[in-house]
Design brief:
single chain; two-stranded antiparallel sheet; 7 strands; five-stranded antiparallel sheet; alpha+beta; elongated; about 30% helix; BirA Bifunctional Protein, domain 2
Length: about 140
């Protein structure tokens, strides 16, 4: 399990956005809400953590994590991160938007994990494993199997 959870290279589905400064924080909250919705649909117990500024990376103005409960390990493990970076990235890239007034300004960026594939798989396996070692498919995914 440790290798699947803490790999240095892994596949994930990521949400990204370019926003105006006045709507960018709302976009961060939307991404965070989508993450919670996905966990609720899978019916996996989780906790949401608001990271303090000391614990987030240099470009981030705000960040939160979602940790899934892994009963086989008896602890929560990070499965999702959402980061709001204001205009940090767009300054270097010079990514701008032109307003109706003709003024140009830097965009604000957000990114958030939809699913880190290996970590999501472990959370499903651990939360849906039966007493005989089989793994039930979460109801929300059954139509795709």
């Amino acid at each position: 399990m440790e290798g699947i959870i803490r790999m240095h290279q892994f596949d994930k589905l990521e949400m990204e956005s370019f926003s105006l400064g006045e709507t960018a924080h709302d976009e961060h909250l939307l991404f965070s809400g989508i993450q919670e919705y996905l966990m609720q649909q899978l019916q996996i117990p989780y906790r949401k953590l608001q990271k303090c500024t000391f614990d987030i990376g240099k470009p981030n103005a705000k960040g939160s994590d979602i940790d899934a409960w892994l009963p086989g390990q008896g602890q929560y493990k990070e499965t999702h991160t959402a980061d709001y970076m204001t205009d940090y990235q767009s300054r270097r890239l010079k990514t701008r938007v032109k307003r109706d007034s003709g003024d140009t300004e830097l965009v604000h960026t957000n990114d958030a994990t939809a699913f880190a594939c290996g970590r999501a798989m472990v959370a499903i396996m651990e939360n849906y494993q039966t007493i005989d070692g089989k793994v039930n498919i979460p109801e929300v995914l059954q139509g795709y199997m």
